[in-house]
Amino acid sequence: MGKSLTSGLVGLLSALTMSCSGDDDAISAARSAGWSDVQVESSNYWNLTCEEEEKAYHIVGVNPAGEKSSATVCCGHTTFVKGCTIRYK
Question: Where are the domains of the chain?
Answer without folding.
Answer: 3-87
